[in-house]
Amino acid sequence: MTSKVSSPTEQADEAVVGEQRKPPGTKDVRRLDRVIIRFAGDSGDGMQLTGDRFTSETASFGNDLSTLPNFPAEIRAPAGTLPGVSSFQLHFADHDILTPGDAPNVLVAMNPAALKANIADVPRGAEIIVNTDEFTKRAMQKVGYAANPLEDGSLDGYNVHPVPLTTMTVEALKEFELSRKEAERSKNMFALGLLSWMYHRPTEGTEKFLRTKFAKKPDIAAANLAAFRAGWNFGETTEDFAVSYEIAPATKAFPVGTYRNISGNLALSYGLIAASQQADLPLYLGSYPITPASDILHELSKHKNFGVRTFQAEDEIAGIGAALGAAFGGSLAVTTTSGPGVALKSETIGLAVSLELPLLVIDIQRGGPSTGLPTKTEQADLLQAMYGRNGEAPVPVVAPRTPADCFDAAMEAARIALMYRTPVLLLSDGYLANGSEPWRIPETDELPDLRVQFAQGPNHTLEDGTEVFWPYKRDPGTLARPWAIPGTPGLEHRIGGIEKQDGSGNISYDPANHDFMVRTRQAKIDGIDVPDLEVDDPGAGTDRAADTLVLGWGSTYGPITAAVRRLRNAGESIAQAHLRHLNPFPRNLGAVLKSYDKVVIPEMNLGQLATLVRAKYLVDAHSYNQVNGMPFKAEQLATALKEAIDG
Fold this sequence. Notes:
By secondary structure, this protein is α/β, with parallel strands linked by helices. The chain is built from 20 helices and 25 strands. The strands form six sheets. The protein has a seven-stranded mixed β-sheet with strand order 12-11-13-14-16-15-23, sandwiched between helices. Helix 14 (405-420) links the parallel strand 15 (397-398) and strand 16. It is globular and about 95 Å long. It starts with 16 loop residues before the first strand and ends with a helix.
């Protein structure tokens, strides 16, 4: 099952203007095929909530969409400062899209800090809506404005809409018994109402959400509803907004099915629940809260009705220890973390390798090293996932490519763990975890059968004819050892971190046995059945076959694919392939790489996949790297790939 459907072409970043029409008695309505909106303000201004609500209504309308939440690591950064700016970018369209967009067509800036932090990304001619109430002398000086940017001509190249959002919100709520400070908190709903009018978004879902969210505080619910409606009415009546915009539903972008908007962490959570149901095993999560993985713990804790048990441990080591114990007890066991937590869990991952038990280790990568950039994205844990344990401790590695694909990646990680009796590392990242896109809800008959057979009795006969249970006697096809549930009569066996004797599982210090066990564990991972790598090369087999292959993994899929589409639209021949399985690699990867003159590998690290590819296949792969905490932009990648083609 695929989570997205790709159209053969990718449009330019700019919104395309179609026909204008003016129904009787209304303002002009302009049709666009896409738009990119960025909400920006203080981390306490509710920009994430505003963006999330706009996204939900856009999804219900039927547009394709992609989002990029971006917020500070501090729980409450200093108000009005550049480090305290929180933003939410949404790209939505009437056709298939792949990224949150390179540059916003509309910027909503709630204060001077939000304007200054984001103006460099806004192209000339774009719409900028600013909350003029916040442009006080002190607020502007705090972020380095010597003069008011709304008055000094520095924004003359933009379509600036000065709106006293705070004042208008307070005025709209004067009938409610709220303090000014309480009323001001609803200004994000006023902005949401205005943008909902501008882009013809549905309003019923947001109104229902507000009533539900503040059900125990009906006055607050009513105030937020009033602010939301006031923003809509302001757009309808003011002369400053002479045009509203329509973006039709993306009716041709998706196959038939039931869709919902979903974030990567939510899709991953649902994938884990579905895997446990398909395996007919209880799901156990042993975890310690860490950004950006904590949402998985929050979500799974809501689903006890599916047999899910969640344990919030006192630290990372306790979390994975509990999960490994649950795996020994017969559960589909999971632990979630980010890069620093993987480092702490490494010894227990090695123990899981030695015990040969199924365990899912979910790493939602973020910027490092150490605490690094907790709320920013990076792909820099690949080598840690491959080699970050003592001894020869091979672990399969799987990586999703889009937020919706996190569901399928979780199912695949569970398949490998259960079939081959091994811990599996799943590498998502902050961009996928927090971003969202439409997801087709699968039918249950589309999901794989993950049921396993537990050991039931003796499996080995000694020379004297005695039937015994050997915990390390292997399946000849998968090299997996039997999974024996504690308490099953006759299946008692020793576990622990010291090397096991082949077959019997007894403690062994024999050099030859250790050599055999190390090689056997490696052979088990090398023998995992993964699909061949698919290559997208429209000219394959013709004189238009590409000389250059761009190879990616994980969350670079969207920007790479958008960049490749741009180049093909410009007449360039370029091939694309994207890895889900990073250990073991697909068996045809070497042949694919050697069939192209040039291989370019874009990564949000300093070249970790490129290092693995060069070492294993002796291919002179070229790295294109970025480690600034943000995803690649399509235009940036297209330029780099064009240089590679021409070089």
